[in-house]
Write a structure and sequence with these properties.
By secondary structure, the chain is mainly beta. Helix content is about 5%, strand content about 50%. It has an 18-stranded antiparallel beta barrel.
Length: about 425
């Protein structure tokens, strides 16, 4: 009940202490209903299957506070399917959840300590990202040490367990989530006049899937991203390596490589072109050579239809993605067209070709007012026979497509100065 009256309390405070509130607080919201029409989203469908339509909605209330030594943020979130909750609600099964709840203490001008549930995103969101497309998005329960000076350095760590202090079985640590038992990372970043470099070292621990009692298997990811401006174009590259042990106690030896060029074609048109490879394991492989992008915003990389690395394809044959993207902006309207040519990085099976298919993604957004925008998109997958083998069924000859229409409303109730 207390959460229901937060908005009323803040409004009363604004009436009693308007100068104090506007100087230290902000209160904003988000209302984001999205309707999706699917006939082949994430996997191939058969020609006799009908398209499905679903509407989901994200609703948020964001509260921020700051002074000269403290920053805090609280984000209350409700994610639901339209029709998923009865019109007459008689219980608390659909309670509002907490997406973010953290405090950052300024220990000095350069050092700070941030603790609590928080979003974690770095660089192009390949390894750590907010997953903002998903209505629920992603946040971590974490402790984060930050240094910010001539260069930036972050050290994050987390340990997850249930509430039984007498149980030392790490398998219970992930009983209530889909993430990790233990996590530590270091992120370094520096900017120069025309270039920037980020380095990441991630140690990710999960319970042993075969013998979880008192055993955690760790995978190490090391690498980074480099960008350089070579007017009129910008070059960017990612390179990451993974080793250690996976949850099945298999040796891990994997890598991720990306090379990308971007620039402007005209005042209102820009382009991006590139190639990404995520290593994979052959169908008869004994070691794990499949790269895992862990906590990245995978929806933004390998096609909007989410055939790869969005709740699927982990520990599989990897991926080669050759892509080109065009963006056109005209006042408040932005249009995008993406093309991806997919192939497997490893062997799918005996006599199976590596080419998987080509995806076309079209999008349009309209900024109607500062707090109101509309988004639309449509995608199609032109799949190959190999995609049928990889996905375990479906009909590549069927019209595989997916589309969405979305309204985004972000009112700023009280500004933060």
């Amino acid at each position: 009940m207390r959460n229901k009256y937060i908005g009323v309390i803040v409004i009363l405070m604004s009436l009693l202490y308007p100068d104090l509130l506007q100087a230290q607080f902000s209160l904003s919201g988000e209302y984001r209903p999205r309707t999706e029409l699917s006939h082949g989203y994430k996997k191939l469908v058969n020609s006799d299957q009908d398209a499905q339509m679903v509407t989901s909605q994200r609703t948020r209330l964001n509260l921020n506070y700051r002074n000269d030594y403290l920053l805090t943020k609280l984000v209350l979130q409700d994610v639901r399917l339209w029709g998923g909750q009865a019109q007459l609600v008689t219980n608390e099964d659909y309670a509002v959840s907490i997406h973010e709840a953290w405090a950052e203490i300024m220990l000095s001008d350069e050092f700070s300590l941030k603790a609590g549930r928080q979003e974690v995103a770095y660089d192009d969101h390949r390894i750590f990202g907010t997953v903002g497309w998903a209505q629920q998005a992603r946040s971590h329960d974490m402790l984060l040490f930050k240094y910010s000076g001539d260069w930036d350095l972050h050290f994050g760590l987390a340990y997850h367990h249930d509430d039984n202090l007498n149980d030392d079985n790490p398998a219970t640590a992930t009983a209530h989530n889909d993430a990790y038992t233990s996590l530590q990372y270091v992120w370094f970043h520096n900017n120069w006049d025309a270039s920037k470099l980020s380095l990441l070292l991630l140690n990710n621990g999960v319970p042993d899937a075969v013998d979880p009692a008192n055993k955690v298997r760790y995978t190490q990811t090391i690498g980074g991203r480099y960008m350089v401006e070579l007017t009129p174009i910008t070059l960017a590259s990612n390179l990451y390596f993974q080793n250690g042990k996976d949850a099945s106690n298999m040796d891990v030896g994997a890598y991720n490589f990306l090379i990308e060029v971007s620039g402007s074609i005209s005042d209102n048109m820009s382009f991006v072109g590139g190639f990404e490879r995520l290593s994979g394991s052959d169908w008869d492989e004994t070691d794990n050579k499949s790269f895992t992008p862990f906590y990245g915003t995978n929806h933004k990389f390998n096609g909007f239809m989410d055939y790869f690395y969005v709740g699927n394809h982990i520990g599989n044959v990897g991926l080669n993605d050759m892509y080109g993207k065009i963006t056109v902006k005209n006042n408040d309207v932005t249009m995008g067209a993406h093309a991806h040519i997919f192939s497997s990085a490893a062997k799918i099976g005996p006599g199976v070709d590596n080419y998987l298919g080509t995806e076309i993604d079209l999008s349009l957004s309209y900024q109607f007012k500062p707090a109101v925008s509309f988004g639309f998109g449509w995608s199609t997958m032109l799949a190959s026979d190999s995609m049928e083998v990889l996905k375990g069924g479906g009909d590549k000859g069927a019209f595989q497509h997916w589309g969405y229409a979305m309204i985004v409303v972000k009112p700023q109730f009280f500004p933060l100065k």
